[in-house]
Amino acid sequence: MADLLSVISLNWPAALCLLAGFALVTVEIFLPGFGAPGITGIVLLLAGIVVAADSALEAILLLLLVIALLSLLLFVVLRSTLKGKLSKSPLVLENSLSRDAGFSSAQDFSTFLGREGLSLTPLRPAGSANFEGNKLDVVADGEFIAKGQKIVITKVEGARIVVRGA
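RE: above sequence
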């Protein structure tokens, strides 16, 4: 170990750059995205290598050492997420809100099927209609329907309500 340190003559600015770089890259591993800590950490690591190396060979050795240490750090973090304390933390939603449990992302308009109402706007083909006091957005089934005409709901597909003239 002493031989390695004598080959690579680290000075205080280089050592601080390398330590700060490793710390910021570690922070970036735990935060989502590729943001300021990761970019700053990589820049500090490269600056530390440039400041510490006296020759191109030393720079390559330091770069390989930094890559090896970052790989080891990534291995430890990934292992921890799969088998360690991080695997027990709720990073992923395990429960789902299913239709069988009574949850729906859209309102159910199937109860309106077959009901009669009046068009509030001309339907060419889309517009609004009133069904027993409920104002709904509807689509005419291929024909123009004027404002104030009687209509009936023939089909409901999710939030799409299809009507025809009565």
